[in-house]
């Protein structure tokens, strides 16, 4: 009888120590509330505005050249028209290349600016999870779709927000 009681006690102890506690947090919601994220977004928007302004200038120059070609087509020789068409095509290609490079630079800038913010948020989530002894924390953001059902459970969003406010 004592043997069975001992085995039962060991099973209960091992089952309770193996129990995992799962929590969830809406990472997207926390991220957009962080001042660092807002500053990063403002910097990205300013950078994008610069690129767009430059692209507008280049497009205006291209349009001006196209109008000149059209206006002078009757008086220019065929050779001059072809040269102008070639020049305009090169301008167009340069604008396209500029736009691709600008997009690439914006993406690199976004990674550069957002990565530290994400790392700070992840550190806060890790700290709260360790403090509260959670085994798993799921991202409940709608954009990620990792939590398909959450009724009850433990939402640590407030705790993470408080940790970030320190």
Describe the structure.
There is one protein chain. The chain has 166 residues and is mainly α. The protein has a single domain (20-165), classed as Protein Binding, DinI Protein, Chain A, CATH 3.30.910.20. It has five helices and three strands, in the order H-E-H-H-H-E-E-H. Helix 3 packs antiparallel against helix 4 and helix 4 packs across helix 5 (157-165). The longest helix is centred in the middle third of the chain and has 54 residues, at 78-131. It is rod-shaped, with a radius of gyration of 30 Å. Mean pLDDT is 86; it is low at 1-18.
**Number of β-strand runs:** 3
Low-confidence segments? 1-18
Structural class: mainly alpha
Which strands sit side by side, in order, in the main sheet?
A: 2-1-3
CATH superfamily: Skp domain
Strand content: 5-15%
Give the SSE layout.
Layout: H1 2-17, E1 22-25, H2 27-33, H3 35-72, H4 78-131, E2 136-139, E3 154-155, H5 157-165
Parallel strand pairs: 1-2, 1-3
Helix pairs in contact: 3-4, 4-5
